[in-house]
Specification:
alpha+beta; 6 helices; Endonuclease, Chain A; 179 residues; eight-stranded mixed beta sheet
């Protein structure tokens, strides 16, 4: 019931207060403390928005990623990790590759990476920041998503929503294997 109420409030809020395009946008007075931002690709600077959100993290970044191919995002996560932010990533099993991929970069930096092989495809694209921000949408962490594909990121600031996503993230981590 609580999830349904949150979903209804989010839909109403997004209709009444359309999302803005940057994290610096003025705070909106939305139900349950929700603030919304968005970005569209190709060439909508979605990668920049991801990087900005990662740099603003102070406590924790949890990621579920189907595709993880952006070295700049890997470097930003490593910098956050080195500054004391807890970073953990659950990826689809298809991200097991040879060579120096972004997944290997972050794993080598000491960031826990897990591969979810329970599902045919772990097709999530989610970043949960500091237990209060959820970034989701169709945007894969890949160069094609930024430069060629029509994709989107929706950023919602809500502790309640972040908690729901965090619980889902934890359930995927639980059945995943360490990279």
């Amino acid at each position: 019931m609580k999830k349904q109420i949150i979903t209804i409030c989010l839909i109403i809020a997004l209709i009444l207060f359309p999302p803005t395009n940057h994290l610096e946008a003025a705070e909106l007075s939305l139900p349950i403390g929700t603030f919304a931002y968005t970005c569209f690709s190709p060439n909508g600077e979605c990668t920049d928005l991801l990087l900005e959100a990662i740099t603003q993290a102070r406590l924790e970044i949890l990621i579920m990623a189907y595709s993880f191919r952006l070295p700049a995002v890997a470097q930003a996560l490593i910098a956050a990790h080195k500054s004391g932010v807890k970073v953990e990533v659950v990826m689809d099993k298809s991200e097991r590759h040879e060579g120096f991929t972004p997944a290997v970069m972050i794993a080598n930096a000491g960031i826990p990476v897990y591969l979810d092989g329970k599902h045919a495809v772990m097709n999530n694209r989610v970043m949960i920041i500091d237990g209060k921000v959820v970034m989701t949408g169709s945007f894969n962490f890949s160069p094609a998503s930024e430069t060629m594909n029509a994709e989107n990121i929706l950023i919602l600031q809500s502790k309640e929503l972040a908690n729901i996503y965090r619980e889902n993230w934890l359930s995927h981590k639980q059945h995943s294997e360490k990279y």
